[in-house]
Request: fold
Amino acid sequence: MSTEERIRLFRETYSAIRTEISKVFVGHNEIVEGTLIALLAGGHVLLEGVPGLGKTLLVRTLGEVLDLSFSRVQFTPDLMPADILGTNIVMEAPGGRREFEFQRGPIFAHLVLADEINRATPKTQSALLEAMQEHQVTAGGKLRRLDEPFFVLATQNPIDQEGTYPLPEAQLDRFFFKLLVGYPSASELGQVLNRTTAGVLAEVKKVLPGERLLELMKLVREVPVASHVQDYAVRLVLATHPGTQTAAPKASKYLRFGSSPRGGQSILLAAKVRALLEGRFNASYEDIQAAAHPALRHRLILNFEAEAEGITTDHIIDQVLNDVPTEAAAMVGA
Amino acid sequence: MAAALSGLWAGLLAGALLSLLSIAAFKLWPLPIHIPLWGAAFPLVGALIGAIACAWKRPSTTEIARWVDHKQALQERLSTALEVLPAANDWAALVLTDAAAHASRVDPRKLVPFRLTTAAKIAAIILLAAAMLGFVPEQRSELQKRRQADAENIRETGRRISELSRRLVEKRPPTVQSTQVAMETAMDLGKGLERATLTRMDAMREISSAAEKIRARAKTLADDPALKQMRQAARSAGGEVSSREALQKQIETLKNQLGTESSFEQIDKLRSKLARMEQTARASTDGGLGAGANQEIAAGLSELARQAQALGLNLPELDAAIEALAAQQTDRFLQKLEAAMSELEKLSEMSKTLQALQQQAARIGRDLAEQLKNGQAESARETLSKLARQLQDSRLSPDQLGKVLEEVQKAIPASENYGRVSDHLKKAASEMQCGKSGEAAASLQAAAKELESLMQQFGDAETLMATLDALNQASMCIGAGQCWQPGRRPGAGNGSRPGAGVGTWADATQQWDAPPGEMVDNSGFQRPDMDPRSADAERQEGAPLSPTKIRGQFSQGGQMPSISLKGVGIKGQSTVGYEQAAEAAQSEADSALSQEKVPRSYRESVKNYFDEIRN
Reply:
């Protein structure tokens, strides 16, 4: 199959997924797009929003649309790491001999829904660290690889809600995107009510098997990025590092820590996916700028001053985007 | 082109800033005028340099691709295509095809739209500020203003000296090399003063130095006895000495214009009477023209008209005035009376000129001897030519030859001061005695030529004296902080008193053309135009003696010449007596005077000053 055909297939698949999701999930196009971009880039997604906005529904629907194994873990304060990863239990062999056998946890699925992830203790949350980064877990003294593709789609309530534990920075950094789920509009809410109160359940089809998803993920990484576009992504990340020469003024003032290199990787991969979705064969400055917010907002750690003044990481990212010029803009003095 | 435009605006901005700074600096400090003038050109130069520099630095293909991507919102298609091109794989082909498709829709004309950038707008504001700053008066101290005015005066004076010298040379080209050199010195001086920025002292020193050179040459010419005589004759005649024939021609012309043989005194008397009559008529008219006054004026005017007719004067306006008076047309009468007065004044002036010409003609010697004696070179030259022509005439009788011989012999003693003229005359006389009329005529022609040469030298001397006088006046003007112009002396303006000089009540129009260091014999000078009109003269004419009270008036005088001398202020108590200090100062002044440190124009004043403080 030629590259052009692969790209065409990419767009068709994406379109099909969107169509299937829209049968169940109403509105929130940016959230859906962001989630799909993260999946196509091979990243994990953290969805944040108050309860009842459809976060879980979105992930669950995505699990149904993708022809992948799906598991859901409801995070609670008493959830233990073994409940996620699995544990060795004593099993009786046919010969009457008893031996330990590893019982795989819900992490062993292609698509894992970590619902209300911030309701679990940090210890349990950290159980996902190795799985999310290395796509493997160490349990019962053995290293066990997870099947590819592997995605964690987590939802969380805002941390100021009762009974929540903020995710550790290391954990947050492993999420490709953090998407903020807002309230639906009036028309969207109307559609939601129509669909959920009429007694008719929409059925979705599986449109994307795992193998094809892996191929699409491979295609994404082939998208060319010009050096100056990549350099722009680098400069954006560097501008979030407080106290450095490259830092944007607002970043220096309100940030305790800036983005890790994973932020840059996320921006660039997301830009590639967006370029393909936009019908282009190359990533552009616009793609980088579009990916900046979801890729960086959970990687920037605000300082006390920012917290006190009600500054959010999105404000900082806006300022960084404003302060860091694209190379062409700098060249013409615009 | 975009780079050039960008450079142009940036250069314009930089130039406008420099321009503003230069004008501001000029307004605050006494900088030369060429600094703001150059400053005015900075924006243009800056814009040009900026445009050229930026256009010269050609951007790379990659930079152009990125710039076009940005300008046309091609989303980095062109720049990415350039980068992936070497890879030559499927992606490169796709990116290239996509970029080519989008590039084909790019309109190059829209790539560089002409618009004013921020730099251009700021530059325009700065230029406007600079232009407005140009109308703000300069902040200058009095000393700076005076120096500036001095420099301007000196420059203008230099230009005028140069112009005057050039005109003098054109009018009367020098015949001798040394005179030419002296005049070139004056011209060079003028150019030097015009170009250089000099202080008052420096300029006066320069003028004094040039004047010394010209004076040396003038003195050489002034020592020539023949030129002395010619100058005396010229001064006596009140200008250039014309020949008898030329004078006669002018006299005849004036007589024809005048139409009468009446003397100046007669006409002037008539004019005075008419003036009094006009005054009376105006006084009567102001209070209403009564019948008695009317009759009296009519009678007076009729008497005047009769006298004018008796003198042969034609005064139609006077007749018209009498008619208007008879017709009780007051306005017309006054108008005609004024016209008649003007007519009579004109006739009076012509009569006066005629009288002066007649007197001048009368002073011209009757024969060659008298002409030479009186320094009337032009007349003498013509006489010599006439005698030569007579000698060449074959019909010359012995009696006539004898008369010519007698005239020539009589002229020989008077020609002693005329160089080789005497030799030629002697030779001519001896040749005539031998009957060699032809040779004698040639000798007389040679004498005429010699006289002509002397006249040319006299012309040189006059040119040099005029130049010298101009330089002296220019020096005094500069010393007084004034701009010199030909004919102007330092002090008040034309005609107002006090006139030229310091503390004198001289006439502003007076001329002093005596050679330096030489006494002038003015005995025998006749200046009827300057004759005083005493009360006796009025009394003789029967004019009523009415006491006239004239109120004295004080008027602001001209600027006194001043000179600034640098000195060192000494503080503390004096340790020497006043007299000792004065003597020491005077000796220093004497030393300065002798060493040419003090300009010539001020030497006398400096000397007098120290003489006074010593006494």
Notes: The CA atoms of residues 242 and 391 of chain B lie 25 Å apart. The radius of gyration of chain B is 41 Å. Chain B touches chain A through 24 residues (CB under 8 Å). Residues 2-133 of chain B form one domain.
